[in-house]
Design brief:
Layout (H helix, E strand, L loop, with lengths): L12 E2 L6 E2 L16 E2 L15 E10 L3 E8 L5 E5 L6 H9 L2
Antiparallel strand pairs: 1-2, 3-4, 4-5, 5-6
Length: 103
C-alpha cells in the first residue's frame, strides 16, 4: 500500500525566530511564519512532523511562480539542508519581493 506524501497539519504556532503568534492557515498546512518566513525543519514529507533535526529554516531566496505565487528557498541552520516551500496567501509580500531581488 502506498504511503501518503502529504499530511494536513494546519496548527497555529509561536515562531521560533521572531516570536510572532501565527494562526492556522485554513486552506492548507501552515509550515512557516507569515511575518519573517522562517520555519522549523520538522517534516520529512509535508505535514508529517517526523524529522528529528528540528533546526531553524531561514529563507535565503524566493522565486515567483505563475501558478503558485512565490516559492521560498530555505536553508537549515542546524543540518544545512536546502528545502523549498510554497508561500502562503498571508505571507509578508515585501519580504518575498526582497528575497526575490536578492538572488
Amino acid at each position: 500500500m502506498e504511503q501518503k506524501r502529504f499530511t494536513k497539519n494546519d496548527s497555529g504556532f509561536i515562531c521560533a525566530n521572531c516570536g510572532a503568534e501565527i494562526p492556522p492557515l485554513s486552506y492548507s498546512s501552515r509550515d512557516h511564519c507569515s511575518r519573517c518566513l522562517c520555519s522549523l525543519h520538522v517534516d520529512i514529507n509535508p505535514g508529517d512532523r517526523a524529522n528529528a533535526c528540528k533546526g531553524l529554516l531561514v529563507p535565503v531566496s524566493a522565486e515567483p511562480d505563475a501558478k503558485k505565487g512565490f516559492i521560498i528557498n530555505y536553508k537549515c541552520k542546524k543540518c544545512g539542508a536546502i528545502l523549498r516551500c510554497r508561500a502562503a496567501s498571508d505571507d509578508d509580500t515585501e519580504l518575498l519581493i526582497k528575497l526575490t531581488v536578492a538572488q
